[in-house]
User: What shape does this take?
Amino acid sequence: MFQKENLKGASIDIDFCGLHLQSPFILTSGPLCYGAEGLIRGHRAGCGAVVTKTIRLEAAVNPARHMGAVNSDSLINCEKWSDYDRLRWYEEEIPRAAAAGAVVIGSVGHTLKEAQAIVRDVELAGAKMIELVSYTEETLLPMLDYTKAHVDIPVICKLSGNWPDTVATAQRCLEHGADGLCAIDSIGPTLKIDIRHARPALMSGDGYGWMTGAAMRPIAMRINAEIARNNPGLRNLYASGGCMKPEDAVEYLMAGAMGVGVCTAAILHGVEYVEKLCMGLSELLAELGYGSVQEAYRAALPNFPQKETVCALDFRFSPFREDGGKRCVACRKCERVCCYGARKLEFPEMRVDMDKCRSCGLCVDVCPTGALTADNAPQTERDLQREQQSAEFYEKIK
Ligand SMILES: Cc1cc2nc3c(=O)[nH]c(=O)nc-3n(C[C@H](O)[C@H](O)[C@H](O)COP(=O)(O)O)c2cc1C
Assistant: This one.
């Protein structure tokens, strides 16, 4: 069970939509949120808030099979909304989870008619926020207008990365009075083939499903950062998409999300894994020199480049640790991933042919121990010329 007193580093509590949350981790709507039991487990594991499975007018009936694995850290699913009747949510599940201390966010989808029928009862049942989810912007905005006019609790819009311009939709939601945003929902449609049976792995109507987990993180990261950069005053943005470890959460905070959703990681490792995320986040923030989530929040935004930079990388290879032990484990990943054959490790020497090296940086990124690092080398006259030429060419062909 998560206890704030056990944190060994930075403080991780946050303020979100006017509420104080024990951590930035939000258990996003999904199979772990099927009812009070799952929501309470999420709360006890350290989630700052927990989102119900999406509540609609009719309980969902799901096909078999509706979830599958894509690699070890991503999923594909065609699970629908909640398979509990909405009355059960109002009468049993939300009140029980709220009574256990969970900050419950009631997820309501997907049409105006459903928002009209459901949001007020979700508020009365004890939810502290409403999260609206829909298939298109055209249906989301009327749902938002209605909900803002009929509930007193904060209203969050969950955005989809599949929409033509999610960042523009975010803007419109804010203009229509959304108190917070969640970016983004699962990516799709996507497909997995079961090669033993030569057919789609999922039994949805078209065999397609929605991708979640690590594979979608860079898409979600870009969208969150862009929303944050466009809205310097926006504090109530929470990210959803592939937060699998504390490092991912720090990335999201630095990119401008105040909260970080977790669904696939909690499915794959068990919801109790959130406690590990909390402990790890606290330690990692401290290691990076931050005393709180707040200090890391938006930290990367001032450092976005204004233009493309052409320069060489100044590599540093430190094969030994300060205590004399080996830092380089001679895994040769740096050598292997060099598409240009520029790098050769002859431990403890590392040779780089700078005529072949294109300064792509991948060798540094795959080094598991930090023995190989790099900074941008100062730009030479020739770098500046090439940078200029490249910019002119790009202007011409745009
Ligand atoms: C099996 C499954 C069911 C989901 N059901 C819902 C849902 O009912 N409503 C919703 O808004 N999002 C739903 N999601 C999306 C998640 O809330 C989350 O936005 C998405 O999985 C990305 O986060 P992740 O990479 O941490 O999983 C579901 C995700 C999965 C994996």
Summary: The chain is about 35% helix and 20% strand. The radius of gyration is 23 Å. The longest helix spans residues 381-397.
